Amino acid sequence: MSSETKKHNVFVTRVFDAPVERVWKAWSDPKDVMQWWGPTDFTCPLAEMDFREGGVSLVCMRAPEEYGGQDLYNTWTYKKIVPMQRFEYLLNFTDKDGKSFDPAEMGFPAGVPREVLNVNTFKDLGNGKTELTITEYGYTSEEARDTSKAGLDQCLDKMAALFA
Question: Quick count: other Cβ atoms within 10 Å of Cβ 60?
Fold first, then answer.
């Protein structure tokens, strides 16, 4: 085994039928976040947003009953925000009080890091369309990367429905 663990990053680009201001708001407005955070059939009962550099948001996704119905919490700690263009945040797996833990303790696949750097970039394509690119860094297994990408794709499907 090499001393350097191979990293697998998630990379997703999506074009939305909405102006950049609207797509940006979907990430910062608690009512919006509660509509799209979590994969298909998951709900978001809590989105305490502190969307500013140095701010920490607490979000919860609730699994459907057939997956156990448990609440899964994350914090998003904002590192850099360039309005309507880009923001970077660290996603941590936490309890309801925002205390961080190892995601493997909650049954996540091996290779999901305790802290995931997310970089979101927004591009105004004109004609009321916005390109959003999301990169998640640091997964150490392909399974962890693929699981996260599948969940992210489902979240973005739900976000697209906000703009329909």
Answer: 20
Q: What is the Rg, in whole angstroms, of the alpha carbon atoms belonging to the chain?
A: 15
Q: 65 phi and psi, to 5 degrees?
A: -50, -40
Name the 3-class secondary structure at 21: helix
Residues in the chain, how many? 164
The answer, yes or no, to whether residue 3 has pLDDT greater than 60, is no
Domains of the chain: 8-162 (3.30.530.20)
Question: Which amino acid does the sequence have at 162?
Answer: L
Output the CA angle 128-134-138, nearest 5 degrees.
Answer: 175
Q: Is the pTM of this model over 0.85?
A: yes
Instruction: Count CA atoms closer than 13 A to 35's CA, side-chain side.
Output: 17
User: What pLDDT score was predicted for residue 4?
Assistant: 57
Q: What is the mean pLDDT of residues 120-136?
A: 98
Residue holding tokens 């350097």?
Answer: 4
User: In whole angstroms, what is the distance from residue 43 CA to residue 88 CA?
Assistant: 24
The string of pLDDT tens digits covering residues 14-65 is 999 999 999 999 999 999 999 999 999 999 999 999 999 999 999 999 999 9
Q: Which residues pair with 32 in a beta bridge?
A: none
Tokens 């998003």, located at residue: 76
